[in-house]
Amino acid sequence: MTVTVSTMFISVHDPDEALTFYRDALGLEVRNDVAADGYRWVTVGSPGSDLDVVLSQPHGGRSQAEGDALLALVTQGSLQAAIFSTENLDETFEKVRASGAEVLQEPVSQPWGARDCAFRDPSGNLVRIAQA
Amino acid sequence: MCVVPPPVPRVDRSRRGDVMTPEELADLAHLRRARDSIDRNYAEPLDVPAMARVALMSPAHFSRRFRAVYGETPYSYLMTRRIERAKALLRQGMSVTDACVTVGCTSLGSFSSRFSEIVGETPSQYRARDHRDVEVIPACVSMVVTRPRRTPGAA
Question: A33 contacts in B (CB within 8 Å)?
Fold first, then answer.
């Protein structure tokens, strides 16, 4: 029996702002966009990959206090969203930087062999991108 | 395609209590940028006024807010970052003096005492130890795992 990851969640403050990063800059496709009670759950994913990434708002389905606490953690930069991989790191880096995303680290070869760069998404989540 | 069922709202949104204001959110984002800037520019001669400028705050207000949000003062965070980078350099075999200068510390004496204070051994002792257990994990993980932790009140 093999258990695979099918869906993961990233808390974002503003779904439209998040789409400028995950869809427009990273090139993920939008697979679903659900609204309920004033909040949205936007499902994105890499073309050709089954993994769904749901961009959800901190207050959706949570109490005010819990949503505030999560939003604070995201905004103050305490959370890591994901590590993406790309066939052309330099090209991806330039595209994401051109989108206006905050650069944390330019492409660099790490001591353990990987080559990667790092950004904040518009909400404040840490996103790393590695050379495939 | 996976359809994610929206969770059932558990709160009456018409009676919001302690809502975070846009100003409070902007404040946190400014603090984040200042902290990211420390992580990026730790090797430069940073001081609290310079860090506060990144956060668009006065030095006193910046220090207070930074400590409230991240649990240590900006200067303490900077030094912890420098020591964490120094540990990585020492594990790779760099000399103590070179590691000190490379991470932005100008005084070997204060570097060593700060290192000893938060690592629990001197830079030379740390450098001489066997670090094979740490080298097999990615640096982004070892940065977190080996990040020195301060005891409350020590900042």
Answer: none
